[in-house]
Amino acid sequence: MLQPKTLFDKIWSRHAILEREDGATLLFIDRLLVHEGSRRSFKVLHDKGLRVRRPDCVFGTPDHYAPTTTRNVAEIDQPERRAMVESLSANAQAEGFALFGLDDPRQGIVHVIGPEQGITLPGITLVCGDSHTATHGAFGALAFGIGSSEGTHVLATQTLWQRKPKRMRITIDGRLSPGIVAKDIILTIIAKITASGAGGYAIEYAGSTIRDLSPEGRLTICNMSIEAGAKFGMIAPDETIYAYLKDRPYAPRGENWEQATAYWRTLPSDPEAVFDREVVLDAAEIEPMVTWGTSPEDATPVTGSVPDPSNLRDSERRSNMLRALDYMGLEPGMRLADLAFDRVFIGSCTNSRIEDLRAASKIALNSRAVIPALVVPGSGLVKRQAEAEGLDRIFKDAGFQWGEAGCSMCVAMNGDIVAPRERCASTSNRNFIGRQGPGARTHLMSPAMAAAVAVSGKLVDIRELAGASYAEG
Amino acid sequence: MQKVNSVEAVALPLSLSNIDTDQILPARFLLKSRKDGLSQYLFHDLRFNQDGSEIAEFPLNHKPYRDARIIVTDRNFGCGSSREHAVWALYDYGFRVAIAPSFGDIFLNNSYQNGLLPIVVSAVQAAEWRGQLQAAPGAHMSVDLQRQCITGPNGVSITFEIDSFRKRCLLNGLDDIGFTLDLVDSIAAFEKEYRGNMSWLEPEERAAEASAP
Prior knowledge:
The structure holds two protein chains of two kinds.
Chain A: H1 7-15, E1 16-19, E2 25-28, E3 31-34, H2 39-47, E4 58-60, H3 79-95, E5 98-99, H4 110-117, E6 125-128, E7 142-145, H5 148-157, E8 159-162, E9 166-173, H6 182-193, E10 201-206, H7 208-211, H8 215-223, E11 232-234, H9 239-245, H10 255-264, E12 277-282, E13 289-291, E14 299-301, H11 315-328, E15 343-346, H12 354-364, E16 373-375, H13 380-388, H14 391-397, E17 401-402, E18 423-426, E19 441-444, H15 447-456
Parallel strand pairs in A: 3-4, 3-6, 4-5, 6-7, 9-10, 9-12, 10-11, 15-16, 15-18, 16-17, 18-19
Antiparallel strand pairs in A: 1-2, 2-8, 13-14
Helix pairs in contact in A: 2-5, 6-8, 12-14, 12-15
Chain B: E1 6-14, H1 21-24, H2 44-47, E2 70-73, H3 85-93, E3 97-100, H4 105-113, E4 117-120, H5 123-135, E5 140-144, E6 149-151, E7 157-159, H6 164-172, H7 176-181, H8 184-197
Parallel strand pairs in B: 1-2, 2-3, 3-4
Antiparallel strand pairs in B: 1-5, 5-6, 6-7
């Protein structure tokens, strides 16, 4: 009898070319996504006199430096940023890979357009020079972030050396309370296992709660695996994913579709497969979550208070917490509900998909933003869909700014920044010191919660707003 | 990549956990190339006030630590963004060894590619060394990669683990690409079988922009 295998192991072994003496495996890579930040990977490739081995497996789009206000490269006023966007186009032209440029309606955040175009598929290996690449694991792909040198390695060889990580399964069963969404699940997980808790592991998210999530919700969960320390995060593919992928531009079709789905159905972990670590959560206990500190592990229910460092016995941990509270402008014991916010950002590879915008727009409808609020769709096609549904009108009527697709204020590289000491409610993935701009104070939360902050200036327990109508659709 | 072997130098204690790559090199400096001198931006917002003056409390601004080549820190060093600039900034400042209870997984791979030796030790050991270094600013530590041995500020040595392959690459200043290009026949043979059996995977675009999000 065959040894039971996990989803991860099945994909890993199918892509293993050979093993090195130290146990590292040379993996075949099916898809490489590139963005402006990949410039150095190409430069080193060309400096070595090498070319791209499989340009048909490379897909590029500008996202980190993509401006929120224009789709015209020439209108990027800062020359260094403009040069980053232009270098991606030049490399695409020189090497002949597919580019979704700034003026292409398919442009967007790499982790939004991969699934949207059907570039992301179950059972494949997919890498990108971005730490949030585990996002694509939501479709049952083995996807992970890489550095610039590893990017050059993939361009040159279509392979990568990796050591096999340990396997962790996080199982969540049961029904979520009304208003609780994927963002609350993943923040709960990170708070429980810490920002380094899954370091060295590949996570598989499992259980009925995960299976009940939409493709968008699953993408949100896997997206933040890295914030728990895991380079890999994945979910077994199922009918929900197949239905989403069917007829996508780059998805297989016809006879190929039949072959693909037959293969995909063999991928889920065998019932007897063994994981190195098991974590179990009860969906009914998950509350609306928000971060108070400077690491995504500093997450707590919205009804909670700022923790008190004097309760910590370890002096280094105490000084770490004091430093976080000082940066965030918080006092121990303050109720989170009493915090006054200055700004809202709804977007990023975590929460910029159509479902996220629909959830936020329900709160914005017939209401009025009392602080500056920026909504940035994850792709040109998400933007187009939202506009077809009239969501842009809802946001604009409520005084929200409606932007062009890109990473925007999540990483503050395109000029969209949070000012020093401003408190920002953000649907992004990192509340790191300086992430949204020097001195910026970021609180992570779901799209509906962020929209609620925009119209009230304060955190709101989303469960108290019209109850069940905010249940995830 | 430069060869790495033994380092004996001032060690910098940094008693912070979860130092992410945004703190090691803030995103706004990613527009700079390595030849612009990334070391001036290392730990920028921890080192400098907004007016450019030094933040007195940050240890790298203390005279005894300025020539540090070894950093001893806390769990999850280099978590966050995959930016290799974080490793380049550390390396170009002069750091050759980073010691911590755990590292960000992507940062770890980036370090090996650039001659920065990451060493995992127990949380207790790292805390003990940080305490000793704080008590005697400017104290030296030494790391011998060949012998896989670290000597603490108090002169006591321990051994550490490293993959034999990684060790050889660091000792000889080799990166992965040259090694892998020698395996091109194995890769081509794999690819032929793989493409034959997984033909559904051949990327093939259908319509220019037919998709809904």
